[in-house]
Design brief:
Elements: E1 11-15, E2 18-22, E3 24-27, E4 30-36, E5 48-55, E6 58-62, H1 68-78, E7 85-92, E8 98-114, E9 117-118, E10 127-132, E11 135-139, E12 163-167, E13 175-178, E14 181-185, E15 192-193, E16 197-202, H2 207-218, E17 226-233, E18 240-256, E19 263-276
Antiparallel strand pairs: 1-2, 1-7, 3-6, 4-5, 6-10, 7-8, 8-10, 8-11, 8-14, 9-13, 12-17, 13-16, 14-15, 16-19, 17-18, 18-19
Length: 279
């Protein structure tokens, strides 16, 4: 299966017996492990040979909450459980029929990348996950797709500009941008590694942020860690499509933006995150 992104609907993820459309899928190929031997005496070249096979990670992008089973998988992974799942990635032709199928066995979810959010952008905001399969194999595609799950009520695409940030005690009304961040799971242990957050906001609404920065960092008051949440909204800016809850937030940098002096940039650490998809 070619490792290339294509238009929405051209790829389907099959997991737990159901198929869901996703924005793109790539990877999962079987690749030989090439070993380069030490040069022998008098030789002018190094011998090479194969030593086993590895399977490339599978990257899947989702632009809405329609693939609910994929988001449930993310939720479980962020809780520290590396659930192994079998499934397949299917490429669908313009006629709606499967063209190719790559099955995967005992895949675990090892990375989730949350898209950049920017109030000045109308671009799609795709969640991207990386699966690490134990094995993959290309098989004959079926004549029809597996049954699909029902669309979530009020399902809508994730857009970069449609978000709302709330952090207890802070003025978040003029947050302009939140950089993309990636949550990683360590294979074997299930340990989730939650990244720092980089947030840009208007300097005129940064008073509460400066107060927190002074008390938390300069005055060293660790008791001032905060909780918060990030909501992905539909186009009406009211319906919540997905929420990420933040726990034990601490601010460690606050300075003027080097690009736009009317903004300040805050960097926060976060001990734990939780993904919630409304029922």
């Amino acid at each position: 299966m070619p490792a290339t992104n294509v238009t929405t609907g051209s790829f389907v993820l099959e997991v737990e017996g159901q198929s869901v459309p996703v924005s793109s899928i790539e990877g999962g190929a079987a690749v030989g492990v090439v070993v380069i031997a030490a040069p022998t005496a008098g030789s002018r070249f190094r011998e090479k040979h194969l030593s086993g096979v590895r399977y490339e990670p599978i990257a899947i992008a989702a632009s809405s909450r329609r693939p609910r089973r994929l988001f449930d998988w993310i939720t479980t992974a962020w809780q520290g459980t590396l659930a192994q799942k079998n499934g397949a990635i299917i490429r669908v032709g313009a006629n709606g029929r499967p063209q190719s199928k790559r099955e995967f066995v005992k895949a675990i979810l090892v990375e989730t990348t949350v898209p950049m959010l920017d109030g000045a952008s109308n671009s799609s905001a795709d969640f991207t996950v990386r699966l690490a399969p134990e094995r993959t194999s290309d098989v004959t595609p079926p004549t029809t797709l597996p049954p699909s799950g029902s669309p979530a009520p009020g399902d809508a695409p994730f857009l970069s500009s449609n978000f709302r940030l709330n952090i207890a005690g802070l003025d978040c009304t003029r947050v302009a941008k939140i950089d993309s961040f990636t949550v990683k799971q360590t294979p074997g242990t299930g340990l989730a590694e939650f990244p720092n957050l980089r947030i840009e906001l208007s300097s005129v609404s940064a008073t509460t942020w400066r107060t927190w920065f002074q008390s938390f960092l300069i005055d060293s008051s660790a008791a001032n860690e905060k909780t918060g949440n990030l909501s992905f909204l539909s186009t009406n800016l009211t319906t919540v499509l997905a929420t990420i809850n933040f726990f034990n937030l601490g601010i460690f940098r606050l300075e003027s933006s080097p690009v736009d002096p009317s903004r300040v940039v805050a960097e926060l650490y976060c001990e734990r995150m939780e993904l919630v998809i409304p029922a």
